[in-house]
């Protein structure tokens, strides 16, 4: 693969130097660069959380190698959860969002997109969509997954990728079918959130429209979420989300078809599963009494 330009995080920059650097990079790479901020730091491994796990390495069709973790349920599994994380850091910093599920009898598989953690390459929207599909195709081939309910859980950027993946999975009649899709703190459109974030800074404000138009509009979550039906969808969004404003969750839920459920929360971005009651809501959605 050709070397790709490093990407920048969709987040507030609090120094003039940082804003200027981001501005220059946006001009060089186009606005899709604002969606990715990977690193290769290992923050925590599953064994430090007393979880059994297996390292999984997958080859993508375009020559990258993805790293993931398989976390088996601690007892007879009720099903499996495929987790797609947000835009920063890597799976070792996001694992706490799903570390509680094996004890609740769910297998979990989580991957790093290209350029994140121990995965090769550099991320872009098309590439990470391919990575998300590569991970799901590996997961459904595991014997312990085929006969059990299967759920997709996407958080923030991972929810946007998961929406596109799930809609295609349903439209193509892929097997095994998904039993539910859970979107936590997800934006309603790649272009929309990029425009909002660019509009927050004086240096990028004049270019928010032309730069956002450099992003492909083929995978907009608000356009794809309706295609997930008849698979149930749960949209989770916090009224205190300082990264992805609450109206994104409301608009995604409105665009979804039945069956659907909306969980209004009151935590910071990416902090849903710190609250036991929210965990129980998600388990209820997945059919656990």
Description:
- The chain has 289 residues and is α/β, with parallel strands linked by helices.
- It has one domain: Rossmann fold (3-Layer(aba) Sandwich).
- It is built from 10 helices and 10 strands.
- It has helices at residues 16-29, 91-94, 125-140, 143-146, 157-171, 190-198, 208-212, 221-224, 246-255, 276-285; strands spanning 37-38, 54-59, 65-71, 79-84, 88-89, 106-111, 150-155, 180-184, 233-238, 260-265.
- The strands form 2 sheets. Strands 2-3-6-4-7-8-9-10 form an 8-stranded mixed sheet, with helices on both faces. Strands 1-5 form a two-stranded parallel ribbon.
- The longest helix is centred in the middle third of the chain and has 16 residues, at 125-140.
- The radius of gyration is 18 Å and the shape is globular.
Secondary-structure element order, N to C = HEEEEEHEHHEHEHHHEHEH
Q: How many individual β-strands? A: 10
Helix content: 25-40%
Strand order of the largest sheet: 2-3-6-4-7-8-9-10
Q: In DSSP terms, counting alpha (H) and pi (I) runs of 4 or more, how many helices?
A: 10
CATH architecture level-2 label? 3-Layer(aba) Sandwich
Q: What is the C-level CATH assignment?
A: Alpha Beta
Mean pLDDT: 87
Protein name: Alpha/beta hydrolase
Keywords: Hydrolase
Domain Serine aminopeptidase S33: 76-191
GO molecular function, one term: hydrolase activity
């Amino acid at each position: 693969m050709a070397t790709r330009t490093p990407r920048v995080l969709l987040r507030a920059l609090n120094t003039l130097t940082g804003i200027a650097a981001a501005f220059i990079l946006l001009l060089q790479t186009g606005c899709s660069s604002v969606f990715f901020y990977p690193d290769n730091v290992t923050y925590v491994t599953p064994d430090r959380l007393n979880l059994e796990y297996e390292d999984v390495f997958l080859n993508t069709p375009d020559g990258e190698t993805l790293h993931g973790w398989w976390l088996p349920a601690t007892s007879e599994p009720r099903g499996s959860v495929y987790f797609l994380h947000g835009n920063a850091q890597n799976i070792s910093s996001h694992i706490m969002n799903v570390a509680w599920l094996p004890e609740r009898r769910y297998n979990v598989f989580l991957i790093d997109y290209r350029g994140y953690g121990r995965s090769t390459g550099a991320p872009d929207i098309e590439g990470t969509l391919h990575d998300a599909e590569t991970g799901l195709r590996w997961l459904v081939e595991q014997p312990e997954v085929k006969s059990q309910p299967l759920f997709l859980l996407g958080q923030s950027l991972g929810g946007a990728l998961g929406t596109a993946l799930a809609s295609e999975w349903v439209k193509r009649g892929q097997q095994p079918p998904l039993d539910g899709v859970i979107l936590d703190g997800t934006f309603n459109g790649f272009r929309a959130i990029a425009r909002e974030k660019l509009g927050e800074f004086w240096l990028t404000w004049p270019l928010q429209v032309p730069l956002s138009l450099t992003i492909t509009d083929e995978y907009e979550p608000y356009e794809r979420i309706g295609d997930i039906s008849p698979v149930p969808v749960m949209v989770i969004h916090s009224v205190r989300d300082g990264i992805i404003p609450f109206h994104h969750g409301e608009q995604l839920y409105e665009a979804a078809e039945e069956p659907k459920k909306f969980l209004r929360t009151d935590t910071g971005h990416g902090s849903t599963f710190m609250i036991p009651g929210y965990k129980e809501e998600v388990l209820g959605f997945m059919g656990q009494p």
